[in-house]
């Protein structure tokens, strides 16, 4: 298991020079979707793992995206990071915990849904203190999102 803090301390390429061909199961803890280096690190690992089947993410709960301007900057960064060429061809199952319904979290979930043609199941667990508006917005956006896999299902709690 790796934490986002440890991995994000370095300059992160889009993909690693050598694919992580033995990596089939990944767990990332303390993922900051408000920190570009954390986002880049997670995406680099995902893009460099051609046989990854399961991915577990635990988002760090914090209020560091307190200002709309900061969130807009993170969303712009995420839009630059995601491309149609990204494909997580072997990813079957994704578990995400610590969801607060922020736009970066929604975008990350959409990236998984649109980039994973073999995806079977996404388990999305919201934090207990998520606002009802944020929860409803997140669920509506995810339900309307086109998916690379016709078989992808989502469990939300």
TrEMBL record:
Residue stretches making up the FBD domain: 88-121
Domain of life of the source: Eukaryota
Designated name of the protein: FBD domain-containing protein
Organism: Kalanchoe fedtschenkoi
């Amino acid at each position: 298991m790796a934490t986002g803090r440890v991995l994000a301390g370095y300059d992160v390429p889009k993909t690693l020079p050598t694919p992580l061909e033995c990596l089939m199961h990944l767990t990332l803890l303390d993922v900051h979707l408000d920190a570009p280096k954390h986002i880049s690190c997670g995406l680099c690992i995902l893009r460099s793992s051609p046989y990854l089947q399961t991915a577990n993410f635990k988002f760090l709960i914090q209020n560091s995206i307190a200002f709309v301007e900061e969130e807009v900057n993170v969303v712009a960064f995420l839009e630059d990071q995601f491309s149609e060429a990204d494909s997580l061809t072997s990813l079957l199952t994704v578990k995400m915990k610590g969801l607060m319904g922020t736009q970066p979290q929604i975008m990350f979930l959409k990236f998984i849904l649109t980039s994973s043609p073999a995806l079977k199941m996404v388990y999305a667990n919201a934090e207990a203190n998520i606002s009802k508006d944020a929860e409803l917005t997140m669920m509506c956006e995810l339900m309307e999102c086109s998916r690379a896999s016709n078989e992808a299902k989502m469990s939300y709690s």
